[in-house]
Amino acid sequence: MNKRILAVALAAALVLSSAGMAYAATPEDLLMGMGHKLFRGVVNALTGWVEIPAQIVKGYNRDNVAGAFVGIFTGVYHGVGRTLSGCGEVAGFWAADPASNEGIGIPLDAEYAWEEGEHYKWMEPNVADGALKPMGDKFLRGAGNALLGFLELPGQIVKGIRLGAYDLGIVKGLWYWYSREIDGIWDVTTCLVPNPKDTKALPFDEKWPWTALSESMTTPEK
To answer: pLDDT per residue over 178-191, tens digit each?
Structure first.
């Protein structure tokens, strides 16, 4: 399975490298996205434990001894989220990503554990909106991508045919399909723990796996 995924990723890179800008990003964007995602993943996977002393210090700065005590638990929580997100980015460095994590999951304070960043107040305005909603939205995004990611294949093929690049549509459809699957599974399994505020890899063309297909069925050809 891993060899099959790698083959699709490499094929995507090769085809995208020779494709026109009408239907693809530059190969530099593709490779830089993969590189940035892999780098951050390795760093976060190895330094998730740093969240514990970091959150203790941050808690003390916010609320002295009481804040430091709460920081122990916050550090464990964020440390687990950072480590898991790092492992996910390493495993799926080749995959495309959703365009943004805005409102998805509880955000980590900063990109890396040792940075100050911005503390997320998950009880504001209330627990439902500050914690349960972003967790639920992460789960729903993951479920949609994991269960319906296969719709990228017909959607990208039709899109490619319309743009005169059916071969690119096939490869891109497979790449997006596999990407949706791994991104979706990771969102579902980690919906309760924090995640990075942004994504690193080349973003999907559309928000949902069925968007390209539905738009091709409703938009008349020019």
So the answer is: 999 999 999 999 99
